[in-house]
Amino acid sequence: MNQQIISAAAQGAAESANPLLPNPWEMGVVLAGFAVLFYIVVKFVVPMFEKTFAERAEAIEGGIAKAEKAQAEASAALEEYKQQLHDARAEANRIREEARAEGAQILAELKAKAAVESARITEQAHAQIESERQAAVVALRSEVGTLATTLAERIVGESLSDDERAARVVDRFLADLETQSAGAAK
Amino acid sequence: MIALALPAQDSGTFTPPGIDQMHLPAILPWGASDGFSKQMLLVILSVVIIASFFVAAARKQQLVPGKLQFAGEMAYGFVRNSIAKDIIGGRDFMKFVPLLFSLFFFILVNNIYGAIPVIQLPSFSHVGGAYVLAAVVYITWIGIGIKKNGLKYFKLATVPSGVPWYILPIVVPIEIISNFMVRPVTHSLRLFATMMAGHLIVMIAGSGIEFLVMQENVLLKGASVLVLVGAVAMYMLEALIMVLQAYVFTLLTAIYIEGALHADSH
Predict the structure, then answer these.
(1) Contact B20 A16 (CB under 8 A)
(2) How far apart are the C-alpha atoms of A123 and B14, rounded to whole Å?
């Protein structure tokens, strides 16, 4: 039996299938299997892996970009605050300067106004004094004649015999005059 | 292994297993010489293994990957970056990643079968599958060349630039033969031959050990240990070659595609 098998094997080897000749069914199975595998790879495996890779890359790069952006924003904000502070200081200085200038101006104006006013008052007083003087001169001038006449009448009426009497007359006259002018002043 | 052992049983002379023992009886109908073979089952199984593993690994899509996703990404990234990106180049390699990825893992798993006890049968130890994959690649790169350069592609692929005109009559036929005729043959046979040889070595070692153990002579019996040691070494080498051939097949595919894409600059 063994001999038979060996000889069968040997015979088989002689006419044996050329190993380079394919079995068409096997070819079909390999082709179909590979096609199915290829379809699954194209449809699911590669897209899923690529998506994961892309997401990962984006996560890493996005994180870096986000951090850079945050830093840029922070430095921009700092710059802005500095600028604002600087502006505010400048503004305060300006306002202080303005106020000072305004105060000085107001002071100057008031001074000028006061000077004008005092000048005006002085002027007015001068004018009043002048007019009063004029009025006094006029009144005096008209009165002196009357007074002289009155005095002369009295002197004449008292008989101008002695000096003592004359002096008394004059004194009385003057006293009258004084009371008169005091009454007029009242 | 039973079928392999039969010729050597009790006989005085050692008949090594040959090409014929490469053909196992069919699974369905069981034991028939033709039908649904173990190879076919393994090929279908490989598709299920690869697809389920990578879909499971890719499905979670977490930014910080778990172990499974990390392993899947490593494997995918290897084909994507070390083969597709490095060979085809940064601009249009993404289009070919699915093909290269499918090829690499399809061949890898079908080869590794040969190193797994009980299964112990690389699918490409039968030439049909290798022919199919080489044909797919052949059609792909010629299609890419024509799509990219039009019919001028055949001139670009066979007439190298910068060669003096009087050498062209020799160079052009060589280019035609090497690029369009020999290339698919070597591409498929390289894979098939290494896998078949590996499988054959396993069979010979196995039957050789069995033959020696069956001998009456104690020394001969003891010599089986030497064969076993040699077989283990060959097994290691085969495992390396299985991975290497998957890589080589995919790498060559990438090189062919790159050549077709940039035919005008070669």
Answers:
(1) yes
(2) 157
